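Morning!

This is the sequence you dropped in the shared folder:
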Amino acid sequence: MPVSLNDFRERVIESGLVSQADLQALIADLPEEDRPADVEQLARLLVQNEKLTAFQAQQVYAGKGKWLTLGSYVILDKLGQGGMGLALEAEHQRMERLVVLSILSPAVNKNRAAVRAAIPKRLALDKPICAAAAARHLRQESDREFVRKGSGLGNGPF
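The structure's back. Tokens below.
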């Protein structure tokens, strides 16, 4: 189902990636004839002005913009997907540091052995409950982050 220009604007603002004031200022600074007339033009404008990445624009269009912020991290791009879950490029907001987030799939999260296998040995603790907790919360390990599906993904990638 196509998304109207107004609906896309609302989705962009609801995502929290671009404020209403920033969006209005970006459009107001353009000559009347250059202002976006449709969703594609607005998305292109946001990407060209580095307000959104192409991946973020696609997710916002699909109605999945809310999951692009996970705690202190903003999802920038999808790097890959496999049997264990998917890998996403993200930026830590306060530290302005790029990281890779590993999002475990719901099927993996149901299997304690798979959750333990997904967490590096130096993070995994002997007790299964601790291993599950490590997968449930954002946990920094070098440039890898582990996020459990229930941790605010909402209508996220799965």
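Headline: Helices lie at 5-15, 20-28, 39-48, 54-61, 106-109, 112-118, 128-136.

More detail when I'm at my desk.
O.
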